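Design a sequence for this backbone.
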């Protein structure tokens, strides 16, 4: 069973007056005492201290817990057969000395986490049983029974324990030096990971290079070892690993009973020996702190843990202006150690790139191979970088700009590291944030923000480590190098310095370039006559006789070059497939619009975050202006906007984050062919909004909005890394004090005239479904009951002349006539406009059993916008019809002008 550790206060505070809390604390303390047998005595059995069966102390005592402040586990290596255990036997009342000696060659790694002191009342049963035994008249029988009772209750009582974990390694002296080296470093890595000091990497590395580890958990991989340390330090489990203080159990008895025991056994009071008892560890042992036990001279593979962390290799790369950068948050972790290939070559290089793009690649060690599908001119989702970020390198224009730079480099290529997608695992937070951005209403824009601000765009899967000395010149004349000059040497070549210096002097004279000094990876100056010292640093790292300081290569080596580049989102195998499929078909990349006036015309300009790519975009809508009557008319461009017959209604409103349900969008004449498209403008760049249409009617749409926050963990804000990507957060801010955010919801309705697809602006044969851009108002969505009338949805069956006659017939179909008028009015028929006004003025439709007040409201909104009453709307419609010369409309509008009924003008 799992001990109750995490629920106890450390140290245990005095019980509060809250009865329920006090009762619970007492119950937990009792469970804790019984689990670790703090209330039981102990007996000696070889080199362990098993608990006795009887209870010698009550469980009503208060365990006092203290966390161990030691930063390092303790290593125990036994080296002698004499132990403190035999000395302990001398204080027993009975002659039970065990002369057995063991030759223990095991190693134990102790991880102490808590010390526990426990004092309580002596149990009545222990006192009574000893007291009863002392009353036996037969001395031999009395002695026998008393010895039996002490074995039952335990001859010793431990008052202070150490809790923690133990790893045992058998037959340590026969473990090979190489295996010991791996073990020491694996323990170091796992310890740092378990304490949360570093992130977990290489978790799938098998433990086949170290001796078997015996512990409470079965451990097959480095991840298992890291998890064991994490569970220990999180107090998920523990065991007694040493005994710090103990007393003979008879010292718990009253003085009178103790004296009778001394008289019976001929013993005298003894003090317990001072010293810590460690199970299965001999008295004479080697006790070493882990930090001193670990040797800092391991193989190259073992340095990778620290170097990977220091080099930010779990972060995506951003191609900033003039230099490489990394994302602020880790995107993945390494499951296995990359494949290492030793190189040990030195390259001497003099080059003058043809253009600025080649110069950027050379200066930053970027290697592009033939067949690499990635085009740096078109990096996915690299069209956005926040104002706070460094600007990105413009590879498109850089390719056409000549470079004046000349580079002289001395490159030490020591080792090549390579990995594939199976060697890494994306972090859950990275996966969640990418999917939230992709499923938002502005996926392209939000994915650009995710990669540009947080995670980076690219991932190189082959890395060369070593060192670089660089000298950069600017040529203000013609090109001085017709081709790149390159020499390569083995790092062990005894004449390497002589050869390098000879070439540098030659270049100095031949090309008039100053090679007297170089800049190293940390920005320091290395003079030409000190290059040999700089190279010796790399040679020492491969020399087994070198000192520990010289061999600390993780602080000397650096990243020399990177190749096998791929977009970072590709590590999300499932999501990347969907993303590729989606954005290979279309992009919606606008992020707002601007309104300005020119020549008394309102003009809208759509803003884009970057350049549009490869014609892979679509524009829908029309270009419009107002005519002299104030009506909007559209410009027709025969070679542009093949979807110009599509009408668009748009609007915007402000919503608050605390009220995102049942948002009403006021519309006109909606049908099931319409498509709703939405866009969000928010001050919170870390928030994405999911918008779901809920129900709709002829004149409105009801939507629900959901706010999705980009995940962050305060514990890992520094590097963005966490082991499993847990999405649990602790918010210490009082929610009542948080400011309610205002968010602008922009929306538009596409009236596609029944067309289910949009014609591609590039290829007439390519048709894209409208629901690629938004949501259809189809039958799967809830239809508001008060708005639903199946007859009103059907196409009118009467001609206009027939509809006009309906109100004069006894059984005339007034609703059908109304539908005809609406249908014809939408075709700009002036007679239909008159009859809509006539029905409004005389309230004709109320005679129909199917009449709904909304029929009038919709007609007024569509054909007589601004009218406040039916009569005002009728007069506006009469005027429109009268302007086309319809006599009856002229008569009725003239009478309205004369009488002032419905016309807001002076007579």
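Sequence:
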């Amino acid at each position: 069973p799992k001990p109750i550790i995490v629920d106890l206060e450390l140290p245990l505070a005095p019980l509060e007056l809250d009865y329920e809390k006090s009762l619970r604390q007492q119950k937990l303390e009792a469970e804790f005492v019984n689990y670790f047998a703090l209330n039981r005595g102990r007996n000696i059995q070889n080199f362990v201290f098993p608990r006795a069966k009887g209870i010698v102390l009550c469980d009503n005592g208060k365990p006092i817990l203290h966390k161990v402040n030691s930063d390092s586990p303790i290593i125990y290596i036994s080296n002698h057969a004499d132990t403190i255990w035999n000395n302990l036997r001398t204080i027993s009342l009975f002659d039970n000395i065990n002369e057995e000696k063991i030759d223990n060659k095991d190693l134990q790694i102790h991880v102490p986490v808590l010390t526990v002191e426990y004092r309580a009342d002596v149990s009545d049963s222990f006192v009574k049983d000893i007291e009863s035994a002392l009353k036996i008249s037969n001395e031999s029988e009395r002695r026998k029974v008393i010895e039996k009772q002490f074995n039952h209750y335990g001859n010793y009582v431990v008052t202070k324990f150490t809790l923690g974990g133990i790893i045992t390694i058998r037959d340590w002296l026969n473990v090979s030096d190489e295996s010991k080296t791996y073990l020491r470093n694996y323990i170091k890595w796992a310890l740092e990971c378990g304490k949360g000091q570093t992130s977990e990497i290489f978790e799938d590395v098998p433990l086949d290079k170290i001796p078997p580890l015996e512990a409470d958990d079965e451990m097959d991989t480095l991840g298992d070892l890291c998890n064991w340390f994490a569970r220990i330090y999180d107090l998920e489990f523990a065991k007694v690993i040493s005994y710090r203080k103990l007393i003979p159990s008879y010292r718990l008895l009253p003085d009178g009973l103790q004296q009778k025991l001394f008289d019976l056994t001929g013993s005298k009071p003894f003090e317990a020996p001072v010293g810590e008892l460690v199970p299965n560890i001999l008295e004479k042992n080697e006790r070493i702190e882990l930090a001193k036990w670990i040797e800092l001279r391991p193989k190259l593979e073992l340095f990778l843990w620290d170097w990977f962390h220091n080099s930010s290799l779990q972060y995506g790369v951003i191609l900033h202006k003039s230099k490489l950068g990394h994302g602020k948050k880790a995107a993945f972790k390494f499951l296995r150690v990359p494949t290492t290939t030793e190189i040990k070559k030195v390259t001497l290089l003099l080059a003058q790139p043809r253009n600025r793009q080649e110069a950027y690649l050379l200066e930053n060690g970027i290697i592009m191979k033939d067949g690499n599908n990635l085009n740096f001119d078109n990096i996915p989702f690299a069209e956005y970088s926040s104002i706070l970020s460094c600007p990105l390198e413009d590879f498109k224009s850089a390719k056409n700009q000549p470079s004046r730079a000349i580079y002289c480099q001395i490159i030490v290529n020591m080792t090549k590291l390579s990995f594939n997608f199976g060697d890494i695992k994306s972090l859950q937070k990275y996966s969640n944030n990418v999917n939230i951005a992709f499923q938002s209403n502005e996926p392209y824009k939000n994915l650009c923000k995710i990669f540009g601000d947080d995670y980076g765009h690219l991932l190189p899967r082959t890395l060369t480590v070593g060192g670089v000395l660089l000298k950069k010149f600017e040529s203000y004349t013609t090109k001085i190098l017709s081709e790149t000059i390159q020499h390569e040497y083995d790092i062990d070549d005894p004449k390497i310095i002589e050869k390098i210096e000879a070439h540098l002097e030659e270049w100095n004279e031949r090309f008039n370039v100053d090679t007297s000094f170089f800049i190293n990876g940390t920005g320091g100056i290395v003079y030409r006559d000190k290059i040999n010292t700089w190279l010796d640093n790399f040679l020492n790292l491969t020399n087994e006789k070198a000192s520990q300081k010289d061999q600390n290569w993780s602080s000397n080596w650096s990243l020399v070059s990177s190749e096998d580049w791929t977009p970072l989102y590709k590590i999300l195998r499932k999501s990347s497939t969907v993303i590729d499929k989606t954005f290979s078909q279309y992009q919606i990349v606008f992020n707002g619009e601007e309104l300005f006036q020119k020549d008394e015309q309102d003009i809208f300009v759509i803003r884009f975050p970057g350049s549009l790519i490869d014609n892979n975009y679509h524009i829908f809508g029309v270009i419009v202006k107002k005519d002299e009557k104030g009506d909007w008319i559209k410009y027709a461009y025969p070679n542009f906007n093949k979807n110009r017959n599509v009408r668009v209604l748009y609007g915007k409103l402000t919503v608050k984050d605390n009220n995102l349900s049942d948002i009403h969008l006021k519309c006109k004449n909606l049908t099931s062919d319409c498509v709703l498209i939405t866009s969000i403008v928010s001050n919170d760049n870390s928030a994405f909004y999911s918008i779901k249409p809920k129900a709709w009617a002829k004149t409105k749409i009801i939507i629900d909005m959901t706010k999705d926050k980009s995940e962050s963990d305060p514990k890992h804000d520094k590097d963005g890394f966490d082991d499993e990507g847990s999405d649990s957060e602790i918010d210490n801010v009082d929610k009542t004090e948080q400011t309610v955010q205002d968010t602008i919801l922009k929306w538009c309705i596409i009236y596609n005239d029944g067309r289910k697809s949009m014609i591609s602006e590039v290829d007439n044969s390519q048709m894209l479904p409208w629901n690629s851009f938004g949501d259809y108002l189809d039958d799967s969505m809830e239809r508001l009951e008060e708005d639903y009338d199946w007859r009103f949805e059907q196409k009118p069956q009467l001609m206009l002349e027939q509809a006009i006659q309906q109100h004069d017939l006894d059984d005339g179909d007034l609703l059908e006539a109304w539908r005809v008028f609406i249908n014809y009015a939408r075709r700009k028929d002036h007679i239909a406009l008159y009859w809509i006004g006539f029905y409004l003025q005389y309230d004709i439709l109320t005679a129909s059993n199917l009449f709904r007040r909304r029929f009038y409201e919709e007609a007024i909104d569509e054909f007589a916008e601004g009218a406040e009453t039916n009569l005002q709307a009728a007069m506006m419609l009469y005027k429109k019809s009268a302007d086309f010369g319809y006599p009856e409309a002229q008569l009725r509008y003239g009478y309205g002008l004369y009488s002032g009924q419905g016309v807001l003008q002076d007579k």
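The CA atoms of residues 49 and 326 lie 55 Å apart.
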